[in-house]
Amino acid sequence: MSLTFEQFEELNAKYENGSATAEDLEALEPYRAKRAVLLASGFGSRMLPITLNTPKPLVNVNGRRIITTILDALLAIDVQEIYIVTGYLKECFQLLKADYPMITLLENPIYDSTNNISSACVAKECFQNAYVFESDLFLSNPSLLKKYRYQSCYMGVSVEQTPDWCFDVTDGRIMDLHKGGTNCYHMYGISYWTAEDGAKLAVDLPECFDADDATKQRFWDDVPCCIRHDNYHLAIVPCTFDDVAEIDSFVELQEIDPRYRI
């Protein structure tokens, strides 16, 4: 039987304070995060020269690879089914297997001629009860990832103005995604998808990808947030700029990790 939001909140609170019974956990099971998809196929041209020999998600920042901040946070909430979609320097990701034997590496053979919607299509069957990440995010606050979630959502920071990708939000629901805005939420590429919405994405992603050549150059998030917006009811989960670091350029890498300063 499905829970109301209020029932879910009550049981989830019991889980978080350690008082949940076996019956409570059984009721929460349909809302448990079971898997994750990490999109990691891109070249990372703005991170040159460091990405000449190292994929951006594997760049070491203050002693940790960027992608391992996500992997460790997933393991902390018991997510063991983890898919990494690779492309550029795909063989380098094999070294993660030593410390993370549970990961499955998927390959996007056309990563260099399309945007990341093609990587999402590679993993389209893996989005149910799943977290989905851009793999170049340094996750400083692993508690952002919750074991149980009631609805599909994105992480974002409330801002008065931003030149970056952002969400328009009304009554807690994401209404649009675009670059640059006011009174919006700065977008982070961290999302969660329920079983129902994950099944919809398995259909919507390839349909939109195959629709025309222009869509092949769009971000995958455009499908649920814009192109097929009416198919989804996406919530915003507020976070702060201290929770996640977007390292988009070599200059930003140098600012965060002094070892790269010349």
How would you describe this protein?
With 262 residues, this protein is an alpha/beta fold. It is 25% helix and 29% strand. It has a 7-stranded mixed sheet with strand order 5-4-1-6-9-8-10. The longest helix is centred in the last third of the chain and has 17 residues, at 195-211. The chain starts with a helix and ends in a 6-residue tail after the last helix. The mean pLDDT is 95.
Summarize the structure in short.
The chain is an alpha/beta fold and 262 residues long.
Comma- or semicolon-separated keywords:
single chain, alpha/beta, two-stranded antiparallel sheet, 7 helices
**How do the strands of the widest beta sheet line up side by side?**
5-4-1-6-9-8-10
Average pLDDT works out at 95
* Estimated structural class: alpha/beta
How much β-strand is present in the residues? 25-35%
Topology:
Layout: H1 5-16, H2 22-28, E1 35-40, E2 60-61, E3 64-65, H3 66-76, E4 81-86, E5 103-107, H4 117-122, E6 130-134, E7 137-139, E8 153-170, E9 173-193, H5 195-211, H6 222-227, E10 235-238, E11 244-246, H7 250-256
Parallel strand pairs: 1-4, 1-6, 4-5, 8-10
Antiparallel strand pairs: 2-3, 6-9, 7-11, 8-9
